[in-house]
Write a structure and sequence with these properties.
By secondary structure, this protein is of the alpha+beta class. The chain folds into two domains: 59 residues; 56 residues, no CATH class. The chain is 30% helix and 20% strand. It has five helices and six strands, in the order ββββββααααα. Strands 4-1-6 form a three-stranded antiparallel sheet, with no helix packed on it. Strand 2 and strand 3 form a beta hairpin. Helix 2 packs across helix 3. The longest helix is centred in the last third of the chain and has 10 residues. 15% of the residues are buried.
Length: 141
């Protein structure tokens, strides 16, 4: 949060890789002239007016935003989930280091599954030709 809230190109690699990061924009600024959200990985620049919300997989998409004009104010509120929380649960409510010391075979087995996790995460996202049916399945409208 802050009076100008500008972030440079980055990915939030500590966030849960398959999770959504919720970003809310507030303040008083001309959204036509600044405060755009940039999704570098997708080649998109999106107007982001005050009061807007977006959910992005911030761990895997590089993103940032553009500055606003002098005298304007923009704040941003972001919610995310740390990937470490998911590892903590996967490792039986213990650290990676503790699991490696107590049961290195189990740690190796759990970590071996990591290779296919990103593919499974991608399958959770709708493809363009699936959007209508997915919306109907979720909302029934």
């Amino acid at each position: 949060m802050g009076p100008e809230s500008v972030t440079l190109k980055h990915a939030d690699t500590s966030n849960f890789y398959a999770g959504g990061c919720h970003v809310h924009s507030g303040g008083v600024y001309d959204h036509k002239r600044g405060g755009h959200i940039i999704l570098f990985s997708l080649g998109l620049i999106i107007e982001f007016p005050t009061g807007s919300d977006i959910i992005i997989p911030s761990a895997i998409l590089t993103h940032g935003n553009t500055p606003i004009q002098p005298g304007e104010t923009r704040v941003s509120f972001t919610q995310y989930c740390s990937g470490g929380l998911f590892r903590w649960v996967q490792y039986g409510f213990q650290t990676m280091k503790d699991l490696a010391a107590r049961n290195p075979k189990l740690k190796a087995k759990l970590d071996g599954k990591a290779e296919g996790r990103w593919k499974a995460a991608l399958r959770r996202f709708s493809k363009i030709d699936e959007l209508h049916n997915d919306r109907m399945n979720v909302f029934g409208k």
